[in-house]
């Protein structure tokens, strides 16, 4: 009897309602190149279209409201001009045969009053994170945010709901809820940043409430088979911490599993997280808690990607820096072709340099590989 070969990065896979041609996902990557009014440019359409051979593209984090802004030149999805600009992006990706999800984002406390007419950023609790905010005037210390009142929280959920509706109007294939990296939903989830004593604070069931209510709200717009969620259980980015990440994220992941989403996207611990101490938890430890499509991220190469998929520890792998410098990353992986090294000096801000000018493999190179 013939044996079934082990799955790898090139094996098609089901993600919600979509059958992906490969398991090489383009991770969400903030590039700080939006135009005036936080509107995507024609340059964005070129950039994403160049990378349409990914099994799935997940866009850069995109604000659900003006209140959610925390970095210069990052795109939004909260007004008609932004929706129309994103429609050019989705059309370009679809013309190239790709799939693209929009990542919905609210930065919470890691913003600065200069983005909000002098008003304080909002957060679960009035706790200033260590570090600095990136502003149009340069790096400035984080301020102590304003704790959201209980009666404001339905409005936060509505921001995500409207962002989901706008993403649907812009022609996306689905959405990812950004619950990672020390932004608003992550701030509510972790006890290092959430000291509330109401229904959204205290025990993990309360701290996870906003994440789950937001996810349910966007599912009602999109349907569960076109919604993913991203979490970062071990990340210390943006001064994040939790007293028991295994229990906190274990609860959240099991609750998300019950929603039967298109996928769960987990970040593995980084070297910085490991140096920071605490109790980092690798993504594979959460695999038994999630029965759906599990996507993993952080410092994967081709060999490691094949390995985690073959071992059943993940169903797909998202790649960030490698997709920045290699727009045709799946082809390069398939041919074991050389990979272009990204230039970190062009990661954030600027023009087409370091954005759309990384070359794809040329035909003559393919013939000699």
What descriptors fit this protein?
369 residues, alpha/beta, two-stranded antiparallel ribbon, 12 helices, 16% strand, globular
Overview of this structure, please?
- This protein is of the alpha/beta class and 369 residues long.
- Helix content is 30%, strand content 16%.
- The chain has twelve helices and 14 strands.
- α8 links the parallel β12 (263-267) and β13 (294-297).
- The mean pLDDT is 95.
Strand order of the largest sheet: 3-4-5-10-11-12-13-14
Count of β-strands: 14
The chain-level structural class is: alpha/beta
Mean pLDDT: 95
Question: Using only CA atoms, what is the Rg?
Answer: 20 Å
Order of helices and strands: EEEHEHEEEEEHEHHHEHEHEHEHHH
Overall morphology: globular
Summarize the topology.
Blueprint: E1 13-15, E2 18-20, E3 24-26, H1 42-50, E4 56-63, H2 80-95, E5 100-105, E6 122-123, E7 132-135, E8 138-141, E9 146-147, H3 153-169, E10 174-178, H4 184-189, H5 204-207, H6 209-222, E11 227-231, H7 245-257, E12 263-267, H8 271-276, E13 294-297, H9 302-310, E14 316-319, H10 321-325, H11 329-335, H12 363-368
Parallel strand pairs: 3-4, 3-14, 4-5, 5-10, 6-9, 10-11, 11-12, 12-13, 13-14
Antiparallel strand pairs: 1-2, 7-8
